[in-house]
């Protein structure tokens, strides 16, 4: 792929789409051309990009003819609708939806974990689920030293995972509740302000929700290890943008704590945040807007000599979605 | 103890103290006399109790002379300061603080679990930690059928655990943040509105905080089983009043899901809340003001055939504190 790349963002007006534009600028992505695509409803809207004003175009059959990379972030059905056209036009689709993630022909990539998998694409590369990316970046460095046997994870997921409108709903709902009103939720199924609830993705017959099964299945695919046993409880909390996770990690034998801490401190995409004196550890407010996954509270599990506990926070829109997609695009550009 | 009981509430102006008064009325506790005690700072304040107006009295050396039961909820140092005087006066102290919980001479009681332990007191009975009570009520019925080997729990704890002023702080902080301001926390160490953080109780050398070690040690004492292995991650979330917990429970062999569900549905102090069609499970907003611990999302753990997952919410001020204390007082009255 040439060093001057023609990029299209499909779903340019959403929370992730907006962040994709910011990241392409911030990271000086070698852009030749940027095309912002969205549904006809959003067409004509203007977006300022550096010193230019770009107009959102309605996506159509010819949108991808002069494009090298499509960053797709408009939901699974939109990705499915346009994937064939994108590939036929000779572009590579980096898809933020779950539509193709478990397809054996589609690499599922976290650049800090399995960068080489990008080269095995047949036109589509999938960006993993947000909670999966954040956990993977934090625990893969440990897995490389001693294979992880089992993970028990509980998540604390922000409203941003449900999109910009859900973030707005939490704010307006909070305002209304503080005024003594009893607002009805419109975007999320239940009130999230001053409340929380198990993740609202569809439930499987096994009692897990889709979000939890993504953590189970996608982690295995990204790590290239089908033996890791994972159980997850995913929960939405009234936080706007960054996700948190409490992760219990079991190995075949004890993992020395100091070693774990050293590895985490040096791992790519991770920042060790531990101030034991001040009881200060990763918090969503500190992870917001950051590229790194903040990891801390690394402890020996008192209930199992072979397990350790850790706590992490990461920006759901950035590393959990847009940043990871742009990093994949960078791999495509730099490795060719 | 006679059926007409003289009760004093020590710490009558706090969040739990206020709820204690409500519960004594609601549950028609056989009161002969109610004395409301607090620090000299709060003395003279008036509280309406049914058709009477009661005045808060400053606690002093003679406060307990004509009292049968003292419900203490003014913090550990106050409990330690007055315990000897209370016992010397012939009253029984039901202490909501952590001061005496692990003292081998002090029963630690959850009436649904170990009601008979109340009779072994030497003047003091301890009320367990809130998260410990809520988890215990939910999982003890399973433990009775098949002994629990290990628990991995993550908590989602409301502001009320840090008292009425912390609840107020979350509200004023939310208001300020919604106005675009950047408020500094005063009661809690870090901003909790639209944020969350690992529990702010003091950290032990093993990396666990006090709140987490309470779940480990108190559960063992209440269950009368020192073999249960427990690990906990306690987290404060921007919810006002009810706590939630994601609990992974390991047995020596598989626990049939339908059996678990039947047991939970019939257990005292527990309400099974599971609407799989509507993805509706326990939420803090529904647990607020309720006596029962709401339990749901009972699932087979995919990572271990001998483990199940469950999710619970309970009112921290009610069953997590005041209600449990009043239930202990009721046991003292009815069993004598």
UniProtKB/TrEMBL annotation, chains A, B:
Residues the entry annotates as binding NADP(+): 13-16, 41-42, 160-161, 183, 316
Pfam families tied to this protein: Semialdhyde_dh (PF01118), Semialdhyde_dhC (PF02774)
Domain Semialdehyde dehydrogenase NAD-binding as annotated: residue spans: 6-121
Catalytic-site annotation from UniProt: 130 (acyl-thioester intermediate), 243 (proton acceptor)
Keyword presence, Amino-acid biosynthesis: yes
Pathway involvement of the protein, from the record: Amino-acid biosynthesis; L-threonine biosynthesis; L-threonine from L-aspartate: step 2/5; Amino-acid biosynthesis; L-methionine biosynthesis via de novo pathway; L-homoserine from L-aspartate: step 2/3; Amino-acid biosynthesis; L-lysine biosynthesis via DAP pathway; (S)-tetrahydrodipicolinate from L-aspartate: step 2/4
Catalytic activity, as annotated: L-aspartate 4-semialdehyde + phosphate + NADP(+) = 4-phospho-L-aspartate + NADPH + H(+)
Keyword vocabulary terms for this entry: Amino-acid biosynthesis, Diaminopimelate biosynthesis, Lysine biosynthesis, Methionine biosynthesis, NADP, Oxidoreductase, Threonine biosynthesis
Enzyme class of the recorded protein, top EC level: oxidoreductase
Amino acids binding substrate: 157, 210, 236
GO biological process, one term: threonine biosynthetic process
GO MF annotations in UniProt: aspartate-semialdehyde dehydrogenase activity; NAD binding; NADP binding; protein dimerization activity
Subunit structure: Homodimer.
Family named by the database record: Belongs to the aspartate-semialdehyde dehydrogenase family.
Function field: Catalyzes the NADPH-dependent formation of L-aspartate-semialdehyde (L-ASA) by the reductive dephosphorylation of L-aspartyl-4-phosphate.
HAMAP family: ASADH
Name of the protein this chain belongs to: Aspartate-semialdehyde dehydrogenase
Gene source species: Cyanobacterium aponinum 0216
Lineage: Bacteria, Bacillati, Cyanobacteriota, Cyanophyceae, Oscillatoriophycideae
Gene: asd
């Amino acid at each position: 792929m040439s060093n001057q790349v023609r990029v299209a963002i499909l779903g340019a007006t959403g929370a992730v789409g907006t962040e994709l534009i910011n990241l392409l600028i911030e990271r000086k992505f070698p852009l030749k051309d940027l095309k912002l695509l969205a549904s006809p409803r959003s067409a004509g809207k203007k977006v300022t990009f550096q010193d230019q004003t770009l107009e959102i175009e309605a996506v159509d059959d010819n949108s991808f003819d002069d494009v090298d990379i499509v960053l797709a972030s408009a939901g699974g059905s939109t990705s499915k609708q346009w994937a064939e056209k994108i590939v036929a036009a000779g572009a590579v689709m980096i898809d933020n939806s779950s539509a193709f993630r478990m397809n054996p022909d589609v690499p599922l990539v976290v650049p800090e974990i399995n960068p080489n998998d990008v080269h095995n694409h047949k036109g589509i590369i999938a960006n993993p689920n947000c909670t999966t990316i954040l956990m993977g970046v934090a625990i893969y460095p440990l897995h490389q030293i001693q294979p992880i046997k089992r993970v028990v994870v509980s998540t604390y997921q922000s409203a941003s995972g449900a999109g910009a409108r859900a973030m707005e709903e939490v704010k307006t709902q909070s305002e209304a509740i503080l005024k003594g009103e009893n607002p009805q939720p419109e975007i999320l199924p239940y009130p999230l302000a001053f409340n929380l609830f198990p993740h609202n993705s569809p439930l499987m017959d096994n009692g897990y929700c889709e979000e939890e099964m993504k953590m189970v299945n996608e982690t295995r695919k990204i790590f290239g290890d089908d033996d890791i046993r994972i159980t997850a409880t995913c929960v939405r909390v009234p936080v706007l943008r960054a996700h948190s996770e409490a992760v219990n990690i079991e190995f075949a034998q004890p993992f020395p704590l100091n070693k774990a801490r050293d590895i985490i401190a040096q791992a790519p995409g991770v920042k060790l945040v531990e101030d034991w004196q001040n009881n200060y550890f990763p918090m969503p407010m500190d992870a917001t807007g950051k590229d790194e996954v903040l990891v801390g509270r690394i402890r020996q599990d008192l209930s199992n000599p072979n397990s350790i506990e850790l706590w992490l926070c990461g920006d759901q829109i950035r590393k959990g979605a847009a940043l990871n997609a742009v990093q994949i695009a960078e791999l495509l550009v730099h490795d060719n």
